Amino acid sequence: MAVHPAAVVDPTAVLDADVEVGPWCVVGPNVVLGKGVRLVSHVVVQQDTTVGAGTIIHPFAVIGGDPQHNGYKGERVRLEIGSNNVIREHCTFNRGTPQGAGVTVVGSNSLFMTGAHVGHDCVVGDQVVMANNATLGGHARIGDKVFLGGLCAVHQNGRVGQGAIIGGLAAVTRDVIPYGSAWGNHARLRGLNLIGLKRKGYGKDQVRRLLAAYRKLFEGEGEFAGRVDGVAERYADLPEIVEIIAFIRDGGRRPLCLPNAE
Known about the structure:
Elements: E1 2-3, E2 8-9, E3 14-15, E4 20-21, E5 26-27, E6 32-33, E7 38-39, E8 44-45, E9 49-51, E10 56-57, E11 62-65, E12 78-81, E13 86-87, E14 92-94, E15 103-106, E16 111-112, E17 117-118, E18 123-124, E19 129-130, E20 135-136, E21 141-142, E22 147-148, E23 153-154, E24 159-160, E25 165-166, E26 171-172, E27 180-183, E28 188-192, H1 194-199, H2 204-219, H3 224-234, H4 239-250
Parallel strand pairs: 1-4, 2-5, 3-6, 4-7, 5-8, 6-9, 7-10, 8-11, 9-12, 10-13, 11-14, 12-15, 13-16, 14-17, 15-18, 16-19, 17-20, 18-21, 19-22, 20-23, 21-24, 22-25, 23-26, 25-27
Antiparallel strand pairs: 27-28
C-alpha cells in the first residue's frame, strides 16, 4: 500500500494492500478501495463508498458525496463503483437516498470524462462513456455501452437503453430506446446508433434488418401501440428488437423519446 504522507485516511476505511493514495487525498469513513485502485491526488472519497479493483480517480473528483436532495437528513446511504473505471478530474458521484434505493450503483470498465456527474440513486451499466460535463439526474438508469455526449443531461428518473448514443448538449427528458441515437435540445430520436453497432461487429445484413424494424416501429402508419405489437411479432427473432420492445413496454406511462418529440 502506498499512502502519501499528505493524504488523510479515516481509520474505518479498508484499503487493499495494492492501493495507491496520492497527496492531498481524503478517504472518509466506511470507504473500501479494492486491489489496484489509484487516487492520483486531491481526490475526496467522502464516505460509505466501495471502489472496485483497478479504478483510477483523477484530481479534484468528489466521490461518494451526500445526495443533492432536500429530503436527505444524514442517513446511511451508499455508493458502489465497479472495477477498471477511469474517473477524470472534477467528476462528482453522489450516494443514494432513503427515499430511493439507498444506493447509487456504477458498473465497470467505463470512462467518465472531466466534470461528469452521477446523481443519487442512479444505476449506470458497464462500458459506459460519459463525456465532459455529462450529467445524470437522480434515479437515472443507463444501460451498458451507452455513450453520453459532452454537456448532455439526462432528466431525473430517465432511462437510456444499452448501446444508445446521446449527442452533446442534448436535454434528455424522455426515455431513449436501446441502440437509439438521440440529440438536439430537447433530444429527439434520430435513428439507430449505426456507428456503435458497426464497431460492435454487426454485419450489413443485421444492420439492414434492424433499420427496417426501426422504420416500421417509428415511421410506419397507424397507432404507435399497434406498431409496437406488429414489430414485436414480425421481428421476434432479433434480440435487439426484442430488447427495444421490452424497454418500451417496461416504461409504462413514461414519455418515450420519439423522432417527433418536442
